[in-house]
Design goal:
Strand order of the largest sheet: 5-2-1-6-16-15
Helix content: 25-40%
CATH superfamily of the largest domain: FAD/NAD(P)-binding domain
Structural class: alpha/beta
Number of domains: 2
Number of helices: 13
CATH class of the largest domain: Alpha Beta
Radius of gyration: 22 Å
Order of helices and strands: EHEEHHEHEEHEEEEHHHEEHEEHEEHHH
Bound molecules: flavin-adenine dinucleotide
Number of strands: 16
CATH topology of the largest domain: FAD/NAD(P)-binding domain
Strand content: 15-25%
CATH architecture of the largest domain: 3-Layer(bba) Sandwich
Shape: globular
């Protein structure tokens, strides 16, 4: 059987390489790391979580929880590593990002069928089996090569939130609580009184932002808007968004506004500012975010940055198996394929790993079907609108509908999906 080249050892590439290797396929897993890094990557290990350390909800009440259940059922390697490095408790799958990436990297290095190569891929042979998992920050040379195949490339902007050290927070202006009202070290709530909030808001909307050079058309991704952009829509938008004190109370009193910090690792020695993705210049981040009373003396371990995200116009160029329509030996997985999110990237990597193996074995490819979250992702890529295509998180609306009242519907969707996955598992 032919060797497969997997470009990028991020969330999708790590999963994909593992699935191929597990089935006896030889893999060249090529990543530019650690000699060089994309603008958002800084960890020498693979499967780096570039922003939040949360893989979102892990209950069957949400489609993202069902997607995780499907992945576990199909023996997802990356999700297993997440489960092994997660923080206990809570309904979200939140991991220690350092331990998670280290574990993924160690396990990949142990695989006999995986040959890890450190270099930047600039182009590839269109006649060889290749899975492109170079992510939303795919290097410009490879982006240009892909553009030469498809004739066009798309992009939008996305942003990373800052991180502070725990011992630099002034806890006199905070309280520990999650949004269910439970006291926990996982979340530190930084209180702003009314005057403090409005002073902060005024400075935030007027602060200096990084000038975008490469592209004139800034396209913000609505689900991950920079905090200053949200603030520009009005103080109330901020109060109803990231600074909303909903569900929180300090000594029985609801604060006027709250900046929530979420723990970064099991030791609780650092916290990230929830919803504070930003494009402010570094000095302005220190100045403006330093107006939050609890963060007046903050030590900033990482400041927010904003990046180009690259993805292919999937409805035009890919089928629901993530294959390039013109070259079925070429697949795209992860964010560059047009799925959005950590878990979705892992999911596309798993499907490509399974189906590339079958393609090489001349077996029919597995159609995961729109009854499952996995299949719904592939279908979204194929059936989306090529004139206005934007990556999308998994959600119930992507699955084949079931005509039942909402309270019964989700349970029925879960049952139908897991039955289908059980059937497919027999075939894989
Ligand atoms: C700034 C930013 C913040 C994000 N925050 C979140 C978040 O909080 N939650 C969420 O669910 N999703 C988030 N996303 C979206 C997405 O889920 C993540 O980017 C996710 O890591 C995508 O997985 P991936 O495997 O497609 O790419 P990545 O995990 O980025 O992996 C791509 C790999 O390819 C390598 N590479 C790139 N170009 C080349 C090349 N030419 N040759 C060789 N190797 C190459 C890179 O070094 C990297 O290791 C964010 C995206 C960005 C850009």
């Amino acid at each position: 059987m032919k060797k497969v080249i997997v470009i990028g050892a991020g969330l999708a590439g790590a999963e994909c390489a593992f699935q191929l290797a597990k089935c006896g396929v030889q893999v060249d897993l090529v990543d530019i790391k650690p000699k060089e890094m994309t603008p958002a990557h800084s960890n020498k290990n693979f499967a780096e979580l570039v922003c939040s350390n949360s893989l979102k909800n892990d209950t069957l009440e949400f489609a993202t929880g069902l997607l995780k259940a499907e992945l576990r059922e199909l023996d997802s390697f990356v999700l297993r590593c997440a489960d092994e490095t997660k923080f206990q408790g809570g309904t979200t799958l939140t991991v220690d990002r350092e331990k998670f990436s280290l574990l993924v990297t160690q396990k990949l290095k142990e695989q006999q069928n995986i040959n890890i190569i450190q270099k930047e891929v600039e182009s590839f042979d269109l006649n060889e089996p290749v899975i492109v998992c170079a992510g939303p920050l795919c290097t410009p040379k490879l982006s240009n090569f892909i553009q030469s195949i498809t004739g066009e490339s798309l992009y939008f902007y996305d942003a990373v939130a800052p991180i502070v050290s725990a011992d630099s927070i002034d806890y006199d202006y905070t309280f520990f609580q999650d949004k269910n009202g439970d006291v926990t070290q996982d979340y530190v709530n930084c209180v702003l009184e009314k005057d403090e909030f409005y002073d902060f808001w005024k400075e935030l909307v007027n602060a200096e932002r990084v000038k975008l050079k490469e592209f004139e058309n800034e396209k913000n991704f609505e689900a991950c808007l920079p905090i200053e952009k949200i603030a520009m829509r009005g103080a109330e938008t901020l109060l109803c968004g990231p600074l909303k004190p909903f569900g929180l109370s300090k000594k029985g009193k609801k604060p006027f506004a709250v900046v929530q910090l979420r723990k970064e690792n099991a030791m609780c020695d650092s916290y990230n500012l929830v919803g504070f993705q930003t494009n402010l210049t570094f000095p302005e981040q220190r100045r403006v975010f330093g107006m939050i009373p609890a963060l007046r003396h903050a030590e900033w371990l990482r400041l927010g940055v904003m990046h180009r995200n690259t993805y292919i116009n999937a409805p035009k160029y890919l089928n629901h198996y993530f294959q390039l329509k013109t070259h079925q030996n070429i697949m795209f997985a992860g964010q560059i394929s047009g799925v959005e999110g950590y878990t979705e990237s892992i999911a596309s990597g798993l499907m490509c790993g399974i189906n590339m193996t079958r393609y090489l074995q001349n077996k029919p490819l597995i159609d995961f079907g729109i009854e499952t979250c996995l299949g719904a992702l592939g279908n979204f890529l194929e059936a989306g609108n090529p004139n206005n295509f934007q990556p999308m998180h998994i959600n119930w609306a992507l699955l084949k509908p079931i005509n039942l009242p909402k309270n019964e519907r989700n349970k029925a969707l879960v049952k139908r999906s897991l039955n289908k996955i059980a059937e497919l598992k027999e075939m894989i």
